[in-house]
Amino acid sequence: MIEAPSIAEHHITGNAKLFANRYDMVDSLCNRSWDTVVEVGVAFGDFSKFLIRKMQPKRFVAIDTFVLTEDGECMGKPVSGKLNGMDHEAFFRQQVPEAEVIKALSFVGLAQVEGDLDFVYLDAGHTYEEIAQDLDVATRKLAPRGCIVVNDYVIGDTVHMPGAGEYGVVRAVNEMVTNGGWKITGFALEKNMYCDIALRRG
User: Fold this and answer.
1) What are phi and psi of 82, to 5 degrees?
2) CA 191 to chain centre
């Protein structure tokens, strides 16, 4: 296990805020207009609908491999009955018809989105290699005033999939921040500590 770098005070913006949950954090961002909002890892589309309703982007892009099946699991819970007999992608398209859908691995899908990205929500692979690759692509495509929010800023999954192994999210995010150019602007709590962290260029 490689330890994550430590965050220092100068890595956090002066107006950074702590939020009770990710919904409140997104709500706080809605004092500006958003052109392209991207969600990576969309599950059943519930959070996608919230992002669209609150942020009202000109363009919403959903990226996922869409591999959920009725006899499978999502976050350690059975999927059974949730897809209404449809495959995952068809179900999502029905739930979020306004979304531009890209079926691909996270970093591949991010690279395919044309133009600058104003907001990216990352909730795909959780190994260090996966999230580091996603952050690399997202940061290169992000608009100057853009924001990245990373879900599951936690060392590992002890609730949904105990024994699934160590997450690399904390290490990847902390390396990105401590290597310079990025600062933490917000932190959102979650009851099981699957927290969200918001990042902007410093």
Assistant:
1) -80, -25
2) 17
Written as one letter, the residue type at 125 is G
Strands 182-188 and 12-19: parallel
For residue 181, the one-letter residue type is G
The gap between the terminal CA atoms of the chain, to the nearest Å, is 29
> In 3-state terms, what secondary structure has residue 13?
strand
The CATH number of 9-201, from 3.40.50.300, 3.90.1150.10, 1.10.4030.10, 3.40.50.150, is: 3.40.50.150
Could you give the angle at the alpha carbon of 183 between the alpha carbons of 121 and 58, nearest 5°? 35
Closest CA to 118 of 177, 58, 63, 172: 58
Segments of the chain with pLDDT less than 70? 1, 158-165
pLDDT of res. 80: 85
The confidence score (pLDDT) of residue 129 equals 95
pLDDT reported for residue 30: 81
